Amino acid sequence: MTTIAFLGDLGSGKTTMCTRMTILTKLLHPEKKIYCNYLLKNYPYEDLDLMKLYLDENPDNKNIIVVADEVYTMMDSRVSTSYRNRIESYFITMTRKAKADFYLTMQYEKFTDCRLAPFVHVKYIMENIPIRKTIMIGDTKYTYIKPHPYMFKVTVFDDRNSYMPMSKEFYFNGSRWFSEFDTNQYIKPPRDIIQQIEINQMKKEVQYHNLKEKLNDIKNKEIGKNKTEIANKRK
Prior knowledge:
Blueprint: E1 3-7, H1 14-28, E2 33-36, E3 46-47, H2 50-55, E4 64-68, H3 83-93, E5 100-106, E6 122-137, E7 140-158, E8 166-173, H4 191-234
Parallel strand pairs: 1-5, 1-6, 2-3, 2-4, 4-5
Antiparallel strand pairs: 6-7, 7-8
């Protein structure tokens, strides 16, 4: 019943470490059901909708693992007053009642609703490990830096015990876990948000066509008026 955040830049191993944590938790507690918003290839899971999960009183929605990759797609800081954000924040505050382990990834905490931060007491800060590469172009040697393909630096902060907060560093080999999920999958917002965007787009299209028809009517009236004036002058 822990809320853990995995933070870092693009390609820093956040989702890889989150997937590892999810699978290890599932192996330790096989009875736990996984709710996830990205593709897990080798373990059964349900598509995650935090609001639906909170509002649904089904007893099967207890003792679960909730995995939210790029959590700001659900709880964007710019819409913190929205109905969805408020409901989802209620769920996060009550993970103990839901017997839920909540794992989330994000690039920057400020992208996410401010109500989330106080409940995250364990953070994995993920970093790329730079490696130096050299290439020859003609007789000239060029050196450049690129991230290691599967090794990452991890710094863990745990302040669940406010009197004795802990931190440690280690290196993480992610190659074992790459086959467990789709690392190139887009993380989409919840379906109701997408539907709202589609509805707004349809409204704008209708407004555009209505405005276009009105402008055409005005234009046709002006043309007709000009023709009438010209005809009257000729008389």
